[in-house]
Amino acid sequence: MGRAYQNRKESMAKTAGQKTRLYSRYGKEIYVCAKNGGFDPDGNLALRRLIERAKKDQVPTHVIERAIEKAQGGGGEDYDTARYEGFGPGGCMVIVDCLTDNNKRTFTEVRQAFVKNDAKLGGPGTTAHMFDHQAVFVFAGDDDEAVLEILMMADVDVSDVEVEDGLVSVYAPHTEFYKAKTALNEAMPEVEFKMEEITFVPQTMTEVTGEDVAVFEKFVAALEDCDDVQNVYHNAELKD
Predict the structure, then answer these.
(1) In Å, how far from its chain's centre is CA 67?
(2) Of 47, 89, 92, 193, which has the most beta carbons under 10 Å away?
(3) What is the mean pLDDT of residues 34-48?
(4) Is the pLDDT of residue 218 over 50?
């Protein structure tokens, strides 16, 4: 199915050309991660993963370094995490993760994106229980059994391995991220990951069709226009 990869690919395509906003989001997330967990990527695995993902998304090195230097400075902004859940156009489920220094502003902006685009904002837990917090790896291949054997031999707690359109998708609990990545790298030194991150994977997909497709795309664009929004997760499967 490649659910997480497909949703990620669609999202990145819509934000292409908005490099300044992308850099800003990574800079903010790296700053918070370094400030809370330490400045050394070797000792802060979350920071290392974040830097690797930023580089894969072609975030310039100076943006990454400046965020870490800012965290080392000790002062700067204080950001809180905020999560909003609800239902988007066509009845799909949505999770919106934010980093904010003004919760009231962020709530107002996110709420407006819902209200203006035929979506319904719910309370905590409204939809999150229908997503799994997973480590996801996607790479070229066609032998899911061989990949599963590699991971099981390394004692990785695997949730699922899928093959579709020449791509292998590996799903594991988010706590198994580095264990799974190390096992795959050691067994397949030439592997190139098209996706390697911790994300929310929908347990089921919801088809969004007809006029709802355009409304959904407008809805996601409105959320991504909010400076405080870091990630938008959904279970929408768009059908033209």
Answers:
(1) 20
(2) 47
(3) 92
(4) yes
CB 80 within 8 Å of CB 97:
no
Number of other CB atoms surrounding residue 100 within 10 Å = 22
End-to-end CA distance of the chain: 18
Question: What is the DSSP track for the chain?
Answer: --HHHHHHHHHHHHHTT-HHHHHHHHHHHHHHHHHHH-S-TTT-HHHHHHHHHHHHTT--HHHHHHHHHHHHTS-S---EEEEEEEE-GGG-EEEEEEEES-HHHHHHHHHHHHHTTT-EEE-TTSSGGGEEEEEEEEEE-S-HHHHHHHHHHTT----EEEEETTEEEEEEEGGGHHHHHHHHHHH-TT--EEEEEEEEEESS-EEEETHHHHHHHHHHHHHHTSTTEEEEEE-EEEE-
Tens of pLDDT, residues 48-61? 999 999 998 889 99
Question: Token digits for 145?
Answer: 């059994």
| Alpha-carbon torsion, ordered 98, 101, 103, 104, to 10 deg | -130
Give the model's pLDDT for residue 235.
95
Name the pTM for this structure: 0.86
